[in-house]
Amino acid sequence: EIVLTQSPGTLSLSPGERATLSCRASQSVSSSYLAWYQQKPGQAPSLLIYGASSRATGIPDRFSGSGSGTDFTLTISRLEPEDFAVYYCQQYGSSPYTFGQGTKLEIK
Amino acid sequence: QVQLVQSGAEVKKPGASVKVSCKASGYTFISYYMQWVRQAPGQGLEWMGIINPSGGGTSYAQKFQGRVTMTRDTSTSTVYMELSSLRSEDTAVYYCAREKAARGFDYWGQGTLVTVSS
Predict the structure, then answer these.
(1) What is the least distance, in Å, from the CA of B14 to any CA of chain A?
(2) pLDDT tens for the 118 residues of chain B, in order
(3) Cα distance between residue B60 and residue B52, in whole Å
(4) What values do phi and psi take at B116, rounded to 5?
(5) Cβ–Cβ below 8 Å for A44 and B62
(6) Closest CA to B98 of A44, A75, A72, A28
């Protein structure tokens, strides 16, 4: 089973700042099948990035994903008030399709 | 438009079983895999397993092997997740989500709260 470790656990930033979230895998993720999701309180997760770096439909370009192998990054270039939420990475290259434990992005 | 509509909240006693449904519409049902994910109160996302609606093939997380069964009904475009031998730790919101061609899980159901309490 591939274990995903996200860091930091909590990130405190202000609107307009840049956010960098990390997701590290215990072994190489097949074909970069790595996705990022945003979850707001009381809502289902929503897809931001798939294939490590491809934005999902309708996702603004301030969100970008990068990385391969075991190290992946989600970057939000300029934080908007609606971006403060919990972010999860998920690998879907090999079963079981595991999630990271999440990074909470909070307003400073 | 694509929709995944899940069945309503359930309250079950320890030892019982629960069956949650996820009805798909707005797309070709058999063309997308469906995963089930759960989230305990205040906790992160936990992957339970996946079903291929086309042939019915499944893959389950080892943690749930022997307790979970995922099935589908192509005539109603519905997938089901049944979890047996429920315990209090199974109290969570259960989600279905679809995926195709390695493009991530792009549509999610609204979630179904399952509460296990004596």
Answers:
(1) 25
(2) 999 999 999 999 999 999 999 999 999 999 999 999 999 999 999 999 999 999 999 999 999 999 999 999 999 999 999 999 999 999 999 999 999 888 999 999 999 999 999 9
(3) 12
(4) -110, 115
(5) no
(6) A44
